[in-house]
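Action item from last week, closing it out:
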Amino acid sequence: MEKIINYRLSPEAMVMVSGSSIGTQKKYYENGYWYKQDRVGYEGTAEYLSSLVLSCSNVKEYAKYEKCQINGIFGCRSANFLKSGESYISLQRLYDTYSGGQLSEQMRLLNTVAERVDYVVGYVREVIDLDIKEQLGKLLTFDMLVLNTDRHFNNIGIIADIEHGTYRNAPIFDNGNALLSNVGEFPYDDPFENFIEKVIGQPFSANLERQAWEVGYGLKINYHKLDDLLNNEPETRAVAVLKYQLNRYEKILNDDSLLV
């Protein structure tokens, strides 16, 4: 039987984090770890499986999630990915700092997905001299695979070391609204296959495939290694959805020669 640790956290560890299109989520932070309780379904399992996929991929920087309970409620935890002296700056915060306003509103002024992607990539290059296109290609291809509905501009960002004036791409994190984890929106009553084409993406297009294609499919996965890991997982809907998606995009993503 799968062992799930129950972490007991005090109310003082609670942090209110807003900005998600899904809504404000209750989180905890204690001793270098972030904890998130499930709110709309099985977000913790989605986070865990997402990081399992990334562990078998060409993505080097990502948050590794552990399934757990937090004060008796299922969820997940992950280590703080910031080093000493570093800060996370979302693309929304970056845009607000230099231009003011909502980056999502600027996207609505542009007619095509390609124009939106080019605008954001060019903007980041202009203001901090960092190329994020390769990372975006990996991120949006990953979102296409795991059906992430919540990739807004607050969980795409960069890591800044202000003292040394350096910037780098942020790790991939915050994948809880993947694998049809929102059971209110995607109930268990219907076969999950019925929901695949109803998934609405962000932030450049509602079509996850379209925005991944525009940036360029950057994600590669060692399917053999991932299969071995998934064979040890309980048979849940989250695992079934992931296997379905892996089969769907195998020709694009599979690279069993990938050293991970």
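Closing note: Residues 87-253 form a domain with the Phosphatidylinositol 3-kinase Catalytic Subunit; Chain A, Domain 5 fold (CATH 1.10.1070).
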